[in-house]
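Dear support,

Our group has been running a series of protein-ligand predictions, and this particular one with D-ribose is the one our PI (initials K.S.) wants archived with full inputs and outputs. We had some confusion internally about which version of the output was final, so please treat the block below as the authoritative record. The input we submitted was:
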Amino acid sequence: MKIAIGSDHGGFRLKEEIVAQLAQLQLEVKDFGTHSGEAIDYPEIAEVVAKAVVTKEFDLGILICGTGIGISIAANKIKGVRAAVCGDVFSAQMAREHNNANILALGERVIGSGLARMIVETFLKTEFAGGRHAKRVDKISRLEEDC
Ligand code: RB5
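Confirmed final output from the archive:
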């Protein structure tokens, strides 16, 4: 499984931890930055990670900012992205199982790193359930055509 990851300065420290976790899990990971605590606008990172995921270069993406909110809003502007901010393990499971989310967004200033690691593990191991959920996800995609 190939994972694209990125953060702004507000998510930088947590991103470094998650990159190490992904390496430990022996997953292929590309770190799209940021690479320091210096301020960077989250839409810039959201765009590169989101495009890497929708072009199928990567299977899933992880985006981190202070809250997970700004970076997920930005990523969701890219056609084909379903980015879900998750602050608990149940939501991470449902985001994959029901919503076929292709990007997990986390807030470094909201959750601790232990919980973040559990959320990441759950998100990566959970498969989309399909069935009745596929119809709903298709309807989300159709909304993009109206814009
Ligand atoms: C940066 O200070 C902060 O606004 C950003 O990381 C994020 O929380 C935005 O949603």
